[in-house]
Amino acid sequence: MAEEHLQRRLAAILAAMLIKPDHPVTPAFNLRVQPEQINWDPVQTATRADIDIEDNGPVHFQLTGAQVRNGRLAWKHRGSDVRVRMTVYPGPVRESAHLTITTMTVHETAPAAQDPEVPRLTEELRQERLQTEKLRNMVKILENRLEIDTARGK
Questions:
Q1: Where are the domains of the chain?
Q2: CA distance 7 to 44
């Protein structure tokens, strides 16, 4: 019984030694793509990384461990559909990210040609306003005369 227990413990120790990696395990790094740059969580245990970008054609970058620990790569998109795959070593650990950019086109239109009647109507309106002001003044004069006549007893 003791011998069987010892064999199980030795098997477990041997299995643990075989399974345990010689290097630190690289964690997930949360790869993100933005219009002006590619970001990820810095990976302190990284020794290097490869970034493959598909953006109106393939582009490949090899990063040093220091660059991977920096957590970003400046990248100005060229197309509206950007796909990025990053592989960090040791590991390797791979992550992918995708960015779709939609644009809205604004068309400027020239001001509408002015209706030839607009100047004539504008002048008519100005004349009507002047006439209205004259009539208001006449009404005030008449009201004042009426008050004066009433006060005199006429």
A1: 21-100, 120-154
A2: 39
Contact in structure between 53 and 86 (CB atoms under 8 Å): no
pLDDT digits (tens, 9 = 90+) for 107-145: 666 556 677 888 888 889 899 988 988 888 888 888 878
Looking up tokens 């060229």, which residue turns up?
Answer: 78
Spatial contact of 118 and 81, defined as CB atoms under 8 Å apart: no
Q: What are the angstrom distances between the C-alpha of 15 and each of 21, 27, 75? A: 12, 23, 45
Does the domain formed by 21-100 have CATH 2.60.40.10?
Answer: yes
Number of alpha carbons in the 13 Å side-chain half-sphere of residue 27? 9
